[in-house]
Amino acid sequence: MKIIVTKDNIEGGTKAFEIIKKGMEDGDKVLGLATGSSPIPLYDDMCDSDLDFSDMTSINLDEYYGLNPDNDQSYHYFMQKHLFDKKPFKHSYIPNGMAKDIDEEVDRYNDIIAANPIDIQILGIGRNGHIAFNEPGTPFGSLTHKVQLTESTIKANSRFFDNEDEVPRQAICMGIKSIMQSKKIVLLAFGESKQDAVKALVEGPVTEEVPASILQDHPDVTVICDEVAAAKL
Ligand code: GLP
Hints:
By secondary structure, this protein is an alpha/beta fold. It has helices spanning 9-25, 40-48, 75-84, 102-115, 151-157, 176-180, 195-203; strands at 2-6, 30-33, 57-60, 62-64, 91-93, 120-123, 145-148, 170-173, 184-189, 221-226.
């Protein structure tokens, strides 16, 4: 696991951007993308760059269940706003949070991931060590699945909603096994609220109680964090 400590999230975004740029020069075609505040500086750099993604595929990690793509809290909306409006990809896949049959949607998404092996997966990390919406206790062998969000995640994400009651209780999420099959992984973590999660990710035991800890077993992981998030290492 390679650790890059940056001054702030802006410099962190630039480091991640450099990895993507280099990957594309080397022929990478499929990017795994994440939502949340951590990847925003990276997406800003991608938007401001002259890189062309129109022959690339993107696969997002997750989507709230029950939110329409045009709801401004949906991850569809987030991706359009922060990246796809300016930089369209040839194909962009995000779980359908409005799917009537959730099991069919889960199968469809697993087929998409199987058909498009991910070259570089971008990840954030939750305060409790979750990756995507894979909460503590999620089996390391999991594929795409429907998840019940924990109280801690609902609380953390409620800052984006008018109140906590509006935060969806469920999501569709790429599993840990699929994330681990990505060729390269870049995890972004910034700020004080991520200190414990970063320590557990880098130094803690590999345990399903800290989903991100499995990344210690992946051959090509870069953790990019700012000085504050890295303070307990
Ligand atoms: C949500 C997302 C995760 C993200 C996490 C941290 O729970 N599903 O993919 O990593 O929030 O978000 P942030 O980067 O805003 O701290």
